[in-house]
Amino acid sequence: MNTKTTIAVTAIMAAFVSSVSPHAEIEKTLDYIETKITSFHGYDWGTSFDKVFENEVSDEMIFDEDYYFPDEKNILMVANVEMDTFYTDIIFYFDEEYGLYHGTYLLQEENSDPNHYYSTYLELQQSYANEYGNPSFIFDHWLDDIFKDDFTLYGVALSFGSVSFSSSWMDEIGDTISVYCSGFNNKISNAIIYGSKNSSKLQEKNKTANDAFFTLYNMKNNTD
């Protein structure tokens, strides 16, 4: 996993949990979806770290290159996994008592056209809409209005960090899937984020350990 990946992860996590700005626009289209969101990457919520590790990490994989986890085993990152038409880093979040409660697919894309990433977001949004129906929420978070009225410049707006886009599906007990696109300093990332109904509570409970992991991992990669 490289510096670009870890910086993008940190930016996505920070932006996703940030407070709503006055420029944020939320479109509510449906309260709940009928399909239950009971798992991430084939693992039910509550699955142990050891079970996921056993299935996802092989003897041929190299620690700190193909996968990584901290001593606390609160996070497992598996790099460069081929899924459908994308390569993605997969991030599993664990709570010591609850087990797996949150997960992220961080797409690995390289394209000189910033609009490519917005197009990918729209494709992912449509793909999940085909499976789950209309999103429960569509959230366009604008920090300013400079590019807002010209969708052909949305890629540029993303690269400047002026906007982030997300579409979320929520089942009746509060489990969610979110397709998310954000950027910073000319780097843009798309992510697919799964959260159990306990995700917000457990993210807060594990915030110190999670923040420490990403801080230390970013520092390590920036010095390589």
- Give the percentage of residues in beta strands: 25-35%
* Backbone shape: globular
Number of strands: 11
Number of domains: 1
Given as residue ranges, the uncertain stretches (5+ residues, pLDDT < 50) are: 3-24
The separation of the N and C termini measures 11 Å
Mean pLDDT: 85
Largest sheet: 9 strands, antiparallel
Write the H/E string, N to C: HEEEHEEEEHEHEEEHH
* Rg calc: 17 Å
Which percent bin holds the helix content? 25-40%
Structural class label: alpha+beta
Give the neighbour order of strands across the main sheet: 1-8-9-10-11-7-6-5-4
Individual helix count: 6
Which assembly state applies to the chains in this document? single chain
Structure write-up:
With 224 residues, the protein is α+β, with helices and mostly antiparallel strands. The chain has one domain (3-223). Helices cover 32% and strands 32% of the residues. The protein has six helices and eleven strands. The chain has helices at residues 3-16, 49-56, 115-132, 154-160, 199-205, 207-223; strands at 24-28, 39-40, 43-44, 67-68, 75-83, 86-95, 99-107, 137-142, 163-170, 176-184, 187-195. The protein has a nine-stranded antiparallel sheet with strand order 1-8-9-10-11-7-6-5-4, with helices on both faces. Helix 1 (3-16) runs antiparallel to helix 6 (207-223) and helix 3 packs across helix 4 (154-160). The radius of gyration is 17 Å and the shape is globular. The termini are close together. The relative contact order is 0.20. The model is unreliable at 3-24 (pLDDT under 50).
